[in-house]
Amino acid sequence: MQKCSLFLFSGSGNTRFVASNFASELSAKYSVSTQEIDKITRGFETIQDDFDITGIIYPVHALNAPAIFFSFIKDHLPEGKGRKAFIVKSPGDPFFQGGSSYQVRKALTEKGYSVVHESMIVMPANVFLRFPDHFITEICLNAKEKIASAAREIIEGKERRHRNSLLVNISTAVFSAMEHAGSFFFGKDLKISDRCTNCGKCIIECPVRNIEEGKKEKPVIGWKCMICMRCIYGCPADAISPRTLKFFKVEWYDLKKLSDTDRSTFTKTENVRPFYKRYREYLDNKEAF
Ligand SMILES: Cc1cc2nc3c(=O)[nH]c(=O)nc-3n(C[C@H](O)[C@H](O)[C@H](O)COP(=O)(O)O)c2cc1C
């Protein structure tokens, strides 16, 4: 059986959901292994270089992959030697195809991979926008269907690449450069409230080791934040929030519970607000991924 290695990053759980559904769909043809790239970049895991095809699965940050992907591809991913790769984006909205994939495609190509398939699996936004639970459920159920279709194409060897317009390429370069530079300040804007029990979870889980034990009761946040939101949504005491950029944090949703909803009894979200119209087009179009 051929081997497929999936490499993902997930700040708040959405991309982990996408990757695990991809893994089960792809197991119809491949022996699949899944690794979270920050465990590799932090030295907790190593990569077994015996795969035939690889999948790079990322949450969209400012129309691009988070910066950690570029260092992962450059410094950790084994040489491609002509092997096939596919790209999966899990953005929080369906606009601009989840941004341009040209930078990730270029990094993979330079590493010797042949990028044969790209897909976009829209998940709930983890910043700015908090949808009603019913709509989040619909997005997750739809994601499972789109993942099944995209995985089938990969298994059948069908090629699909996103065609990004020049405008999207330029927007991606500009917004993502701004995000990469501004992310350090976001970390410094985070406040740890007195609810903190000093349990250490944020210190252990920060993908870029940006949170350290403090001299007093609370941890201390440094200058390396990548705005993944993991410490914010993962804190058991809900003690971490932005001071000024409050709109980044949304009321959290139970992804597991909502996505486990029975599809056969689920009805489409009615009275979709005008802003959601574009989502409706995406959700109703089975080919859109
Ligand atoms: C800093 C940041 C920037 C983001 N930028 C975008 C964006 O440009 N376009 C988009 O569709 N979603 C954007 N999102 C939303 C996430 O890509 C989306 O919710 C994703 O599914 C989160 O995955 P995760 O839970 O695995 O981290 C952004 C999220 C963060 C934290």
Task: Describe the fold and architecture.
- The chain is of the alpha/beta class and 289 residues long.
- It has a single domain (1-289), classed as Rossmann fold.
- The chain has ten helices and nine strands.
- A five-stranded parallel β-sheet has the order 2-1-3-4-5, sandwiched between helices. The chain has a two-stranded antiparallel sheet with strand order 6-9.
- A hairpin with a 7-residue loop joins strand 7 and strand 8 (220-221).
- Helix 1 packs parallel to helix 5 (133-156).
- The longest helix is centred in the middle third of the chain and has 24 residues, at 133-156.
- It is globular and about 55 Å long.
- The two termini are 27 Å apart.
- The model has no long low-confidence stretch (mean pLDDT 95).
- Bound molecules: flavin mononucleotide.
- Residues 10-15, 59-63, 90-93, 98-99, 123, 125-127, 179, 227-229 line the site of flavin mononucleotide (FMN).
Structurally, the number of domains stands at 1
Instruction: Tell me the total number of β-strands.
Output: 9
Strands of the largest sheet, in order across it? 2-1-3-4-5
Give the names of the bound compounds: flavin mononucleotide
Put simply, the count of helices is 10
CATH class: Alpha Beta
- Largest beta sheet, briefly? 5 strands, parallel
The low-pLDDT segments are none
Distance between the termini: 27 Å
CATH superfamily: Flavodoxin domain
- Write the H/E string, N to C: EHEHEHEHEHHEHEEHEHH
Shape: globular
Average of per-residue pLDDT values: 95
Helical residues, percent: 25-40%
Q: From the alpha carbons, calculate the radius of gyration and give it in angstroms.
A: 19 Å
Strand content: 5-15%
Q: Would you give the CATH topology?
A: Rossmann fold
Annotated CATH architecture: 3-Layer(aba) Sandwich
